[in-house]
């Protein structure tokens, strides 16, 4: 199976429980006080749903779909809007992989590499719009 199919299926297993997104934000916000502060006034239940969709968009773009929605995320996260520091994206990626490891019973080191490979173009695009 190619990396995008492996990741698509892994994400399907992760999304079965909303706890995946609860844990993701716990890990992500634990990575720095500055990141936690950014979500102080956020409706986290809504944010978890938005993120579910955002990760799916990254996977679909890796499978060849239009990147229009990711370009919109690049715009909302850039210096003129949320002003998300480029170095924070590695915390985001690490938190996501940690959460996948916890939630996907079929997790392996190979699957982790597939996730990193599949996430890279989408993260580069959003971060690159800074
Ligand atoms: C909002 C996805 C990285 C902070 C959002 C939204 C999505 C999203 C789908 C809601 C739509 C929008 O407002 O445009 C992603 C993805 C990321 C990423 C896919 C990684 C590639 C980050 C990072 C931070 C961050 C690194 C750092 C703190 C925020 C904030 C909001 C937001 C503060 C607005 C929350 C609010 O409405 O109160 N993100 N994000 N994001 N994201 Fe991200």
Automatic annotation (TrEMBL):
Record flagged with keyword Iron: yes
Cell membrane listed as a keyword: no
Task: Print the keywords alphabetically.
Answer: Heme, Iron, Metal-binding, Oxygen transport, Transport
Q: Which Pfam families does the record match to this protein?
A: Globin (PF00042)
**Chain ranges of the Globin domain:** 63-120
Protein family membership: Belongs to the globin family.
Would you tell me the protein name for this molecule? Globin
Give the species this sequence originates from: Marinobacter daepoensis
């Amino acid at each position: 199976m190619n990396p995008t199919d492996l990741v698509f299926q892994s994400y399907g297993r992760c999304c079965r429980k909303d706890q995946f997104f609860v844990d993701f934000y716990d890990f992500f916000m634990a990575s720095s006080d500055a990141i936690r502060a950014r979500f102080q006034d956020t409706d986290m239940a809504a944010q978890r749903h938005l993120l579910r969709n955002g990760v799916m968009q990254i996977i679909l773009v890796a499978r060849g779909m239009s990147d229009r929605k990711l370009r919109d995320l690049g715009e909302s996260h850039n210096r003129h809007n949320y002003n998300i520091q480029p170095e924070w994206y590695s915390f985001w990626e690490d938190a996501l992989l940690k959460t996948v490891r916890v939630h996907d019973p079929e997790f392996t080191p190979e699957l982790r590499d597939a996730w990193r490979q599949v996430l890279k173009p989408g993260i580069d695009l959003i971060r690159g719009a800074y």
